[in-house]
C-alpha cells in the first residue's frame, strides 16, 4: 500500500502534512478537506506589531471567498507571533491575508520585499502546527500536532536576546 498526500503545504512551510495509506483513504480524506471539515492551525511570525488581539480576515483571493481567523500569541519588538486558523483553503491564503493587513510574514519574498522590513531570515516563518478532524471510518476525533521547528525556536530566542541588549 502506497502513501498518498491528502493536502498541500507551501514549499517553505514546515509542519503537519497528512498522507493516507491507499487511494481510497486519500479520497475520503480529501473530501473532508474539500468540505472544510479538517481544522487547521498555523503559527506565523509576521512583520511589525499586530494591534488587535484577534481578528477575522475576509479578503477574497482570485475572486473566491477566503477567511482566516487569527489570535496574537506573543508580541516581540519587531514582529508578532500569531496563531492562524484558515477557514478556507486558498493557495497562499495566510501569506496574502497578512500582507493585506500590512503585516507580511517574516521571510516573505513573493508578496513583499525583504528590504522594506527590518527582519530578514532564510525562509518563510510559517508552521502548520495542528490538524484535527473526525476519522472517516471510526468517527473519533483525530488531532495531529507538530511542535515549532528548531529554526523558528532559535529565531524567537535570538529576538528575545536582542531585545535585552537594547
Features of the shown structure:
166 residues, alpha+beta, two-stranded antiparallel ribbon, seven-stranded mixed beta sheet, globular
How would the global form be characterised?
Answer: globular
Please summarize the sheet with the most strands: 7 strands, mixed
Structural class, please?
A: alpha+beta
Number of helices: 3
Helical content, roughly?
Answer: 10-25%
Q: What's the overall average pLDDT, rounded?
A: 92
**Over all CA atoms, what is the radius of gyration?**
17 Å
How much β-strand is present in the residues? 25-35%
Low-confidence parts: none
End-to-end Cα distance: 56 Å
The total of beta strands comes to 9
Listing every helix as H and every strand as E from the N terminus to the C terminus, the arrangement reads: EEEHEEEEHEEH
Description:
The chain has 166 residues and is an alpha+beta fold. The chain has helices at residues 23-34, 93-100, 150-165, and strands at 3-5, 14-15, 19-21, 39-47, 54-57, 68-75, 79-86, 126-134, 141-145. The strands form two sheets. Strands 2, 4, 5, 6, 7, 8 and 9 form a seven-stranded mixed beta sheet that branches. Strand 6 and strand 7 form a beta hairpin. The relative contact order is 0.20. The model has no long low-confidence stretch (mean pLDDT 92).
